[in-house]
Amino acid sequence: MSENRYTPMVYRIAFASLQGMGVDLARKLLDVVGSERQFFDMSEKALRELTRGRSKIYRDDYRAGCLERAVREESFVREHGIAATYFTDASYPHRLLEAPDAPAMIYTLGKCDLESAHVISVVGTRHATQYGVRFCETLIGDLAQRVQDLVVVSGLAYGIDIAAHRAALKHGVPTVAVLPRGLNRIYPAMHRNDAVAIAKQGGMLLTDYTSQDEVQKSNFLARNRIVAALSDCTVVVESAGAGGALVTASLAMSYSRDVMAVPGRCGDEFSAGCNKLIATNKAALITGADDLMAAMRWENAGLAPQQLDLFPELTREEQAVVDVIRDRGEIHLNALADVLHQPVYKLMSVLVELDCKKVISTLPGCRYTLI
């Protein structure tokens, strides 16, 4: 069926683009037919008899179309300096290869080492709150100072994803953006400059889609399997009761990866998913780098710690809370709310910020004191 003019790469691109193709199916088919070229050279009748398959991937016209698109894709990746890595290549990331539904081919732009010793995925809602964004910044900043050979993986989406990528770029940590479409166009377009910075600053753009694949809604959930499989641990920062971040967490668990979730206030829409993961023992609670390093048994790299800001800048609301605690020495949450004439739910966000700034310490029984 095929012609000798096709290169081995064209056969691989075409084979990987077959509908439903993943590493497991690729191995099974190749065990039967022998090689990618043989798959395209055999007649439809011979293939169906040999494999006893009924899928449309055996049709002559379908396979011919895959080869035609593969020729154009090979030209595209060569022209743009994109690496096309097949699952049998030594450079195919070993963590991803462990996933049974891993793609047979990935396309990457950038030089990030996917075999780095410490790889985490950071995911969450597209509707990130200031609390979630600051958590990403603090977590990745702290890990950058304490963990060598660190890589941060996410999906370049709005909200927590882009916050994680930007925090990694800020702190000099290589970051991998897994995309739901081919590398011919960045999605979302608003994050194009971030994508360029990622590829230039030691990170990587990665996808299993070609430049000719149509963008479908299913792509967004499908790429989550790569986000989960590439890392040792998935951190869910904020999530509603349902959504892509919870899908990623579920996939990570199925791959025997660690999952951690950031706790939030009861009743907050975008803390519901995280709180549920923790409550059902599907994720470990994480409040910062210490929790992650302890859970993963990662050693402190011994890098010089940043000097703490002895006089952090406080908002008017934060200063009012500090003044009351300084006057009382130690105070219960309800008593603090009474003194300040503030509802408890509003005070909680202020107390979280003061805790992050290392101004106050949280004691058992909802009591607070200055550090």
Task: Give an overview in words.
There is one protein chain. The protein has 371 residues and is an alpha/beta fold. Helix content is 45%, strand content 13%. It is built from 17 helices and twelve strands. A nine-stranded mixed β-sheet has the order 1-2-6-5-4-3-7-8-9, sandwiched between helices. It is elongated, with a radius of gyration of 25 Å. The N and C termini lie far apart (75 Å).
List the topology elements.
Blueprint: H1 8-16, H2 23-33, H3 36-41, H4 44-51, H5 60-79, E1 83-86, H6 94-97, E2 105-110, E3 118-123, H7 130-146, E4 150-154, H8 160-170, E5 175-178, H9 192-200, E6 204-207, H10 217-222, H11 224-229, E7 233-236, H12 244-254, E8 258-261, H13 272-279, E9 284-285, H14 289-296, H15 316-328, E10 331-332, H16 333-340, H17 344-356, E11 360-363, E12 367-370
Parallel strand pairs: 3-4, 3-7, 4-5, 5-6, 7-8, 8-9
Antiparallel strand pairs: 1-2, 2-6, 10-12, 11-12
Helix pairs in contact: 1-5, 7-8
Which keywords apply here?
3-stranded antiparallel β-sheet, 371 residues, 17 helices, elongated, single chain
User: Approximately what portion of the residues adopt beta-strand conformation?
Assistant: 5-15%
Distance between the termini: 75 Å
Strands of the largest sheet, in order across it? Answer: 1-2-6-5-4-3-7-8-9
Order of helices and strands: HHHHHEHEEHEHEHEHHEHEHEHHEHHEE
Number of strands: 12
Helicity range: 40-55%
Class of secondary structure makeup: alpha/beta
Rg: 25 Å
- The 3D shape can be described as elongated
Averaged pLDDT, please?
90
**Count of helix runs:** 17
Main β-sheet description: 9 strands, mixed
Low-confidence stretches: 304-308
